[in-house]
Amino acid sequence: MNEDVVISVKGLKNSFGEEVVHENLDLEMRRGEVLGVVGGSGSGKSVLMRSIIGLQQPDDGDICIFGEEIDRASAERELDLRRRWGVLFQNGALFSTLTVAENVQVPLREFYRNIGEELLDEIACYKVVMTGLPAEAAPKFPSELSGGMRKRAALARALALDPILLFLDEPTAGLDPIGAAAFDELIVELKQSLGLTIFLITHDLDTLHAICDRVAVIADKKVIATGTIEELLALDHPWIQEYFNGPRGRAATTAAAR
Amino acid sequence: MSVDADFSEENKDGGRILRFHGRLTLARLGDLPDRLDALDYDPVCADISDVERIDTVGAWILHKLRRERGTKLVGNSEEGERLLKQVASADEPAKAHPDQGNRFTRTIQQMGEATIEAGRSLKGLLIFFGGLLIASANVIAHPRRFRFNAVTHQFEVVGVAALGIIGLMSFLIGIVIAQQGAVQLRQFGAEVFTINLVGRITLRELGVLMTAIMVAGRSGSAFAAQLGSMKLAEEIDAMRTIGISPMEALVLPRVLSTTILMPLLGFYASVIAIIGGGLLSWISLDIPPATYIIRIREVVPMTDVWVGLIKAPVFGFIIGLTGCFNGMLVQGTNEEVGLKTTAAVVQGIFLVIVIDAFFAVFFSSIGWV
Fold first, then answer.
1. B36 and B168, same structural domain?
2. Reported ipTM
3. Using CA atoms, how far apart are residues A258 and A252, in angstroms rounded to an integer?
4. Contacts A–B by Cβ distance under 8 A
5. With 0-12 CB in 10 A as exposed, 13-18 as middle and 19+ as buried, what is B310?
6. Domain tally for chain A?
7. pTM of the entire structure?
């Protein structure tokens, strides 16, 4: 087993009733990289992420994370694996009855019951500030925050256990361009200082250019290509060409080149 | 050597230094923070060159040591230094929990807020009632705007679909009343009055009241949830821009259906309850059904039927109104839909019972006892 492969998916099949979402899908993700996952709406990007993190039972196929098959691991081992990754859901999925800082404390309390209250509060607060929120946001409830701040708060919770692997589901969706660019910057900064490996689902071409090392393209129920944007541009698959060479794709390419 | 985070103390250069080893990470922390807190001196220096791995929590603990005790850190790895810088820049005084304030003032404040809220909902309900009246007047003035299909659809959902559950509930209530009545009245040798009890209480009170509670739970909540989610999805705004009045298209058919169907359902419930009571009287009191029916007709005055039938449409109106009103109040988050649905049912049942009490006083003072 290659030490550098963090996630490996082989022959994945997912279907909802009659509708097959994935068939024979393969994907490999290396340590320390930011892998962008793109695909049309309904192509099953989120389903792929849910399968990898074990929220969706695939019909067929093997999924290994850190070299272990998660659905064959014992319950104890699975928990052990689970705390090595953090997930940022599309709409944040913050617990609405808890404050931002309390949200960050939830995974900490769940996994490490022996941490004192004072240290818990301190950890929660520095994580909140680390994700670029003002300190005053920590005792606020998610409903009192703007969309962009909620995303950051959710990121703080995803980082609560100091994961080495981070799943981001459309982190910049619904943010204004300035907020989205700031969020991209934050992710790059955190990736460097915390040494993260990031699985990133996005529709945002600027995000792809700004932070992704490699991009995986999902179409026709499988990953049709993986590589840097330049490598993908060299392929002549119609969807890839249209995606990166469409008006928006070109604008993002020129913006990134500047 | 174990991988758990640990430290040893040494004397060196006239001061004490700490030598950390193991993994300074969240998973391996153990009781290290407590032991550090328990140190009764300020270490001059902390040597972390033996630390195998460090994460932000470990870095935070070192940062705190440096900040609070002035300890110098030596032997940090490049990665550790980066983490330390990261957490140090994130060190701002912050609170994790909201300010709760004094418990006494908090209680007073909550009471005040609840009172204002109650007054506000009552006012809102009256305004909504007014809006509904205007919408009704418009529809009467322009009968072609009446949404016949929507009304019949609501009739089916509110009425026909509820027959089964309301019938079952009433049947069981009839049995329970008859059974309890028989047991209690037997002590006086007056079992035969069980018939009076069942006949009068179901037609006058329980038939309509229990039906109202069931309709509030089934339909009032459904109205609030439907309108609430339509409001969230901006469907109601879309209707307004197209020029359809949500009052006429959504609220009026619903309120009309509960208002018209409540008397029917209430009467149906009373009859089924009387049948249930009859069955129990037959089995446990040996009163044959024929006698039971004759007795019912003798002891239940016609006014009891009228009492039930007059109250029912008022109850139905209240339930429909509170359901739609709360649904239209939804804004912002999904959570709101749940809250408003609960509020619709609670307000509906509460108002029904309050009005029922007024009716009881009213009917007895006009001599319908």
1. no
2. 0.78
3. 10
4. 86
5. middle
6. 1
7. 0.73
